[in-house]
Design brief:
six-stranded mixed β-sheet; 18% strand; Rossmann fold
Length: 387
C-alpha cells in the first residue's frame, strides 16, 4: 500500500468542517486504497458492492449505534438502495462519528440521492498521482507519468499495457456511466469520450463535435455532462471581466489522465511536443488538488492569444500561469496583452525542471519560473505575508 499523506490531510481537514467527506474520483484512481490507509484500528470499512452491506445497513440507526470505531467508510456507497438516507442519519444522529463515502461521481448524479446533504458534507476529488507523489510510487519518472498516466495500477506496472486502457473504458461505461445515466448506446458514448481524449487540452465546441461525430448535439451535450460528472472530464471555462474581445463561452476540455490521452492518440513513444501538451494536464491536476478553494480558468482573446490557466485569488488580483515543458519556448506576447487588461497579479511560468525557481523579466514583465511545488510555496508565502 502506497501512502498518500496529502490526500489523508485533505480528508482530515474536511472532517473538521463537516461530518461527511465525499471522496470522488474515476475508477481505479485509488479511492479504496486511500480509504483503507486511514487505519483499521479507527475505521469500520464497509464495501457496499457486497450484498452483506445492504443487509447490515437495513436499519442505519442500529448500525451506527453498534459502531465502536470513530470513522466509518462506505466504499462505492451508490450501490446501496438509499445511500443519502444512510448518510443523513449518520450525520444528524451520530455527530461524534466521521464518515467517508466514496464514489465515481457527484452525489447529485444518481436518482438514489434524493438528498444531496447540503451543509453536511465536503467534496474531496482524488486526482491521478500528482507531480509531488511520484517518489512514493517507485520513484517513477515524470516522463513515465506523462506516458502511462497517473492511475496507480498503470504507473506501478513494468510497461504500458494497451489492454488496461481498453478494459478500463469498457468497465467505466458499464459500471459507472450506464448505471448512473442509463445511456443505451455505448458506441455513441465511447465516440464522444474518444473525441475528448483526442482533443484534450483544446477548445471544446459541442456543435463542431456533433458535426464531426455525426451524433445529435443534445446527445453530445448529455454525454459530455456525464463525463464531467464522473470526473473523467474537466471543463476549464474562460476568464473574462472587461469585454476586451475575450472568449466568454467556449471551454477548454481536459481528459482525466495523460495515459489515456497518449493511448488514444497513439503517442508511443512520446515526442517533445507531446510532452508539452501532457505537462499542461499534470499542472492542471496539481492546481485542482492544491488550489481547490479557487476557481481555475483560462484566458483567450479573439486574436488567439491565450493564457493556460488563470486563478483569481482576490477581487483585484489575477494570477496568470503558463505551462511549458521547455521554458525556452515561452513567448510573453499573450501575457503582455493580458496584463494590459488586468495589470495586478503574479505571473508564473511552470516548468518541470527548476526546483529552486527564479525570477526573470520578459517584455517588461516579472515572471516567476518554477516547478509546481515552487508555485505552491510562493502562493503560501504570499498568503502568510497578508495574514
Amino acid at each position: 500500500m502506497v501512502d498518500r499523506p496529502f490526500w489523508v490531510r485533505r480528508i482530515e481537514q474536511a472532517w473538521q468542517e463537516t461530518p461527511i467527506v465525499w471522496l470522488a474520483g474515476v475508477r481505479r484512481s485509488g479511492k479504496t486504497t486511500l480509504a483503507k490507509s486511514l487505519g483499521s484500528e479507527r475505521t469500520l470499512y464497509v464495501n457496499c458492492d457486497l450484498p452483506s452491506a445492504t443487509a447490515g445497513l437495513a436499519n442505519p440507526e442500529l448500525f451506527y449505534r453498534d459502531c465502536e470505531r470513530p470513522v466509518v467508510v462506505f466504499d462505492e456507497i451508490h450501490q446501496l438502495g438509499d445511500p443519502s438516507r444512510t448518510l443523513k442519519i449518520g450525520a444528524d444522529e451520530f455527530p461524534h462519528l466521521k464518515i467517508l463515502a466514496t464514489g465515481s461521481s457527484t452525489l447529485a448524479a444518481s436518482r438514489k440521492f434524493r438528498d444531496t446533504l447540503t451543509g453536511r458534507k465536503r467534496l474531496v476529488r482524488l486526482t491521478p498521482v500528482l507531480w509531488d507523489e511520484l517518489a512514493s510510487f517507485g520513484g517513477a519518472s515524470l516522463r513515465r507519468r506523462l506516458h502511462v498516466g497517473g492511475l496507480p495500477q498503470a504507473l506501478l506496472a513494468r510497461e504500458k499495457v494497451p489492454e488496461f486502457y481498453r478494459e478500463w473504458m469498457d468497465s467505466f461505461f458499464a459500471r459507472d456511466v450506464q448505471r448512473l445515466f442509463a445511456f443505451r448506446d455505448p458506441d455513441k458514448f465511447n465516440a464522444v469520450f474518444e473525441y475528448v481524449l483526442r482533443q484534450s487540452g483544446g477548445l471544446l465546441e459541442t456543435a463542431r463535435a456533433s458535426r464531426l461525430l455525426g451524433i445529435g448535439r443534445q446527445t453530445v451535450v448529455s454525454h459530455l455532462s456525464a463525463l464531467e460528472t464522473t470526473h473523467a472530464l474537466t471543463l476549464v471555462r474562460p476568464f473574462h471581466a472587461g469585454g476586451q474581445k475575450e472568449l466568454v463561452k467556449v471551454p477548454k476540455a481536459y481528459a482525466f489522465d495523460t495515459g489515456f490521452v497518449s493511448f488514444c492518440r497513439g503517442w508511443d513513444p512520446l515526442r517533445p511536443d507531446d510532452c508539452g501538451v501532457l505537462w499542461e494536464h499534470v499542472v492542471l491536476e496539481y492546481l485542482q488538488a492544491h488550489a481547490h478553494p479557487w476557481t481555475i480558468r483560462y484566458w483567450r482573446d479573439t486574436g488567439g492569444r491565450e493564457i493556460d490557466f488563470v486563478v483569481q485569488r482576490s477581487r483585484d488580483e489575477v494570477d496568470a500561469i503558463e505551462c511549458k515543458w521547455d521554458p525556452a519556448q515561452f513567448d510573453a506576447a499573450a501575457l503582455r496583452v493580458f496584463r494590459g487588461h488586468y495589470p495586478r497579479g503574479m505571473n508564473y511560468l511552470v516548468v518541470p525542471l527548476d526546483p529552486r525557481g527564479h525570477v526573470k523579466r520578459v517584455s517588461g514583465l516579472e515572471v516567476h519560473v518554477c516547478d509546481p511545488d515552487g508555485w505552491l510555496r510562493d502562493v503560501e508565502r504570499r498568503g502568510q505575508g497578508r495574514g
